[in-house]
DNA sequence: TGGAGGGGTCGGCATCGCCGACCGGTGGTC
DNA sequence: GACCACCGGTCGGCGATGCCGACCCCTCCA
């Protein structure tokens, strides 16, 4: 676990900087933003451009992310075993539940959505594959926190950002919820990320029973909940789907 | 346009190698595949792993692409101006045409799909955003070939791969088709990529009238064509959508 | 018309990363 | 069961390589 290659780490930092800022960034902005000499930043950007990882606006000379990243991101999905196994189960789950289905894996300090099935109605929806969800305020995140020590480590000590009045922001409360998740075998999040939205999630394990991801059903509180709590039939559907995916991944039967 | 940073170029080559092979690759495979010393390849892979661009299977020690690429790919889409402007128009087009809609840009030797609207029926479809289409055998590609000299340059001299008996594989024939595309203002491809599939595409220009992409409607020959030719109403819809998007991008009115 | 800031270039220096020999573990084979 | 072939990984010395900061030209603005 010795040192990293300097130029590569810097290139990664530049890409993340470009991904973070909403707009294009100029050479000087990149250089000062990362504390690099202009010449250094330029050399890295030039190479990244040749490789297609960044593009340069011909008018302004400013830089943005490049198309090659999209292509490689798609390739990541293509070889993703969990996603491949889960495709059909997620589809069935969405159909049965009549709600949106997400499949997420732990990535850095959040949950990365690797699959997303639209709610089976005709409403206009945008695909969220590739986007991140907070660990402490979603059902997907709480499942990972409860079962994956790495996730809990990444999150740190809080207090965390409150997205709604119901967001759990204190470590003690969150850890208590995680204990409950482990006890029940599923997690919920009712109006903790967005007002009016509730979700239920369950854990997916690989052949060695390691936590590798989570599957979740999400929708309006009016349809997901019943009398203030998540509808038991939804919980059952999600847990069944999670078990099915885990079995497909080679987890031993119960 | 002087030299590139060696370690960065090599890292990009490793990522492409991992994206190309369907399965995970071992350290030695990567090293020999690119003609690198094992130690060198290991150093790059270690750094890429720390940055999240590759992941390592704990059992086999083999490497695959990492989740950070998916996240950055999504960020690329987020800042993509053409895609943002085209979202609503593509939606309308799909609804009006009753067929699948693709939005593509030139990337290396192919067309990169940056947006994809499912055909508005309940059939099971997989999202193709981030995938590549051949330049010489799709409507999207032929539009770009006709209007973007860079695209024609990238493609080279052929003969190109034949996907079906109707694929155009010879330069003379393709250039003639491109001339026709410029004359008519739209391109079609009937069973040139897949048997039974036909598509129509039109050019999208930016504020300086440069070609920046293409929009396309694609579906079964039975519904897209009529008497051996593409239905004129579809052509009109696609061209109208392309003009609308171009106008949104700031292209001067006609 | 000047100046401030932009992106881009260049060459010299020392740093940084490349290389190939080496290590420990593992799975296959006879 | 002992060997061997090959795996992923490590290490240190040498030299290529990439970093830095001064410099250039252009545009925009005062």
Write the topology of this structure.
Two copies of one chain form a homodimer.
Chain A lengths: L5 H15 L6 H8 L3 H13 L3 E3 L6 E3 L1 H13 L1 H17 L2 E8 L2 E8 L14 E3 L4 H9 L1 H7 L15 H14 L2 E4 L6 E9 L5 E10 H4 E2 L2 E2 L1 H17 L6
Antiparallel strand pairs in A: 1-2, 3-4, 3-8, 4-5, 6-7, 7-8, 9-10
Chain A binds a DNA duplex (30 and 30 nucleotides) through helix 3.
Organism (chains A, B): Kitasatospora cheerisanensis KCTC 2395
Function (chains A, B): May be an activator protein for the gylABX operon.
Keywords (chains A, B): Activator, DNA-binding, Glycerol metabolism, Transcription, Transcription regulation
Précis, in short:
The structure is a homodimer of 254-residue chains. With 254 residues, the first copy, chain A, is an alpha+beta fold.
Structure description:
The structure is a homodimer of 254-residue chains. In chain A, 46% of the residues lie in helices and 20% in strands. Chain A has 254 residues and is α+β, with helices and mostly antiparallel strands. Chain A has two domains: 6-70, Arc Repressor Mutant, subunit A, CATH 1.10.10.10; 80-248, Beta-Lactamase (2-Layer Sandwich). A six-stranded antiparallel β-sheet of chain A has the order 5-4-3-8-7-6, with helices on both faces. A two-stranded antiparallel sheet of chain A has the order 1-2. In chain A, a hairpin with a 6-residue loop joins strand 6 (187-190) and strand 7 (197-205). Chain A starts with 5 loop residues before the first helix and ends in a 6-residue tail after the last helix. The first copy, chain A, binds a DNA duplex (30 and 30 nucleotides) through residues 2-3, 5-7, 26-28, 36-40, 42-43, 46, 60-62. Chains A, B: Residues 68-251 form the IclR-ED domain. Chains A, B: Pfam families: HTH_IclR, IclR_C.
């Amino acid at each position: 676990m010795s040192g990293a290659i300097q130029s590569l780490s810097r290139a990664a930092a530049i890409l993340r900087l470009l991904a973070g800022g909403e707009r294009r960034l100029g050479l000087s902005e990149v250089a000062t933003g990362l504390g690099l000499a202009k010449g250094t930043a330029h050399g890295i950007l030039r190479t990244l451009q040749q490789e297609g990882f960044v593009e340069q606006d011909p008018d302004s000379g400013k830089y943005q992310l490049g198309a090659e990243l999209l292509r490689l991101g798609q390739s990541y999905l293509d070889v993703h075993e969990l996603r491949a196994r889960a495709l059909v189960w997620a589809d069935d789950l969405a159909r049965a539940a009549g709600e949106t289905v997400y499949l997420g894996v732990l990535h850095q300090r959040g949950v990365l959505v690797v699959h997303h099935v639209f709610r089976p109605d005709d409403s206009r929806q945008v695909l969220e594959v590739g986007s991140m969800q907070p660990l402490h305020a979603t059902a997907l995140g709480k499942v990972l926190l409860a079962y994956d020590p790495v996730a809990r480590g990444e999150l740190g000590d809080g207090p965390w950002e409150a997205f709604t009045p119901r967001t759990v922001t204190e470590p003690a409360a969150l850890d208590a919820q995680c204990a409950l998740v482990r006890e029940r075998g599923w997690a919920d999040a009712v109006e903790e990320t967005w007002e009016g939205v509730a979700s239920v999630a369950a854990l997916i394990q690989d052949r060695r029973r390691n936590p590798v991801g989570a599957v979740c059903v999400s929708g309006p509180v009016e349809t997901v909940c019943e009398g203030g709590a998540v509808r038991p039939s939804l919980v059952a559907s999600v847990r069944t789907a999670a078990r099915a995916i885990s079995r497909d991944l080679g987890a031993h039967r119960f």
